[in-house]
Write a structure and sequence with these properties.
The chain has helices at residues 11-27, 42-45, 62-78, 91-99, 132-140, 164-176, 201-213, 229-243, 258-266, 277-282, 298-301, 335-338, 342-355, and strands at 2-6, 32-37, 53-56, 83-86, 104-108, 119-121, 184-189, 218-223, 250-251, 270-274, 289-292, 311-314. By secondary structure, it is α/β, with parallel strands linked by helices.
């Protein structure tokens, strides 16, 4: 069998599809399994042991985008796939699924696009208290003959292949800072995909200062997306100012790519971050995690991995406006994040590290 999965756009969403790759290869061990992804998330699936092929969709705009997509569609048609699963459901992925000409095309029931599939799976528009991995698993269950079984994170966890070159680059950078195995590394990711998921900078500053002050052997590395690099620099500077003589415990590590991020997290004692791609990259390691949740809920997007590896979720419970569609903050004050205290995150960090000691 020749199978293609399509998942465009966001890094975290691509991470959440990786349990399906293992499951598909387990049920169809002789199948040729391909994955179509866009460039930003390509490192998540590159080198995945269950994939035979990774196709990276070009990122073009305007007329060039139309030409590129027609060329890509023709390539998919030449691939003669028996089964194509659209894990995304957007206009582009639906069109590519249809253009592939596969005799079996599975996707979600979406107005205006359902006709492009041979089998469509209902996807309620309401935000349900159900994990994203389980929602996508519904597409597998639409395959003829698929065994009825709920996804199990202890058996089918998220994964991302190790990258030896990225690990070597991170090792050299740590050596440059004089970091040895005697140091306790903590990675704090301070940005998120949109402003609705960003914890305030002063809260991060207090958290980083408190973490660094607890131990002379502790080193804090701040991570961020390119658009939030200035925010990360401000947080680092404020934390260093608060720490005084201990300011060297907060490291200015600069930029790192996804493979390097994973390598750094794997060498760390703890990862802390909001509900964004890096949190789910962290879930592909065994490093303890503290997730900071605002408009989203852990029940839908908590790290999907073996429960033996500790993951703490911190949120403001009882808000009637949660979860939200992240388009308009109804109260207007982003209270799901602005009222989340650094002390709560610090306590979660201690629980996570102590459980893994």
């Amino acid at each position: 069998m020749n199978i293609l999965l399509i998942r465009l756009r966001l890094i975290g969403d691509v991470v959440f599809t990786t349990p399906m790759l293992r499951a598909l290869k387990r049920i169809y061990p002789e199948a040729h399994l391909a994955y179509l992804v866009e460039p930003p998330a390509a490192p998540v699936v590159t080198g995945n042991p269950h994939l035979d092929e990774v196709i990276v969709a070009p990122q073009a705009t305007g007329a060039a985008r139309i030409v590129a997509d027609v060329q890509l569609g023709r390539r998919l048609r030449r691939g003669r796939y028996d089964l194509v699963i659209d894990l995304h459901g957007g206009p582009r992925s639906a069109w590519l699924t249809w253009f592939s000409g596969a005799p079996q095309r599975i996707g979600y029931e979406i107005t205006g696009r359902t006709w492009m599939y041979t089998r469509a799976v209902p996807r309620p528009r309401a935000l349900r208290p159900r994990h994203s991995v389980r929602n996508q698993w519904d597409l597998l269950e639409a395959i003829d003959g698929w065994p009825a079984a709920e996804p199990d994170p202890s058996k089918d966890s998220v994964e991302m292949a190790r990258d030896a070159q990225a690990e070597a680059r991170i090792a050299r950078r740590l050596d440059g800072f004089g970091i040895t195995s005697a140091h306790e590394l903590i990675v704090v990711h301070v940005s998120a995909g949109n402003p609705f998921r960003r914890w305030p900078e002063p809260a991060f500053t207090r958290l980083v200062s408190a973490l660094a002050a607890e131990s002379p052997s502790r080193r804090i590395v701040l991570g961020s997306g390119p658009s939030d690099r200035d925010a990360a620099n401000r947080i680092a500077e404020e934390a260093k100012r608060a720490l005084g003589p201990a300011s060297g415990r907060v490291l200015d590590f600069g930029e790192f790519d996804l493979a390097e991020l994973r390598a750094l997290i794997e060498r760390s004692r703890l990862f802390i971050g909001g509900d964004s791609g890096p949190l789910h990259i962290a879930a592909t390691t065994t490093t303890p995690i503290v997730g900071i949740y605002g408009p989203t809920e852990p029940v839908r997007s908590a790290p999907w991995r073996d429960p033996r590896f500790r993951a703490e979720s911190v949120e403001v419970a009882g808000l009637p406006c949660r979860p939200c569609d992240q388009r308009v903050c109804e109260p207007g004050d982003f209270r799901c994040l602005t009222t989340l205290k650094p002390e709560e995150v610090l306590l979660a960090a201690k629980r996570a590290m102590n459980a893994h000691a």
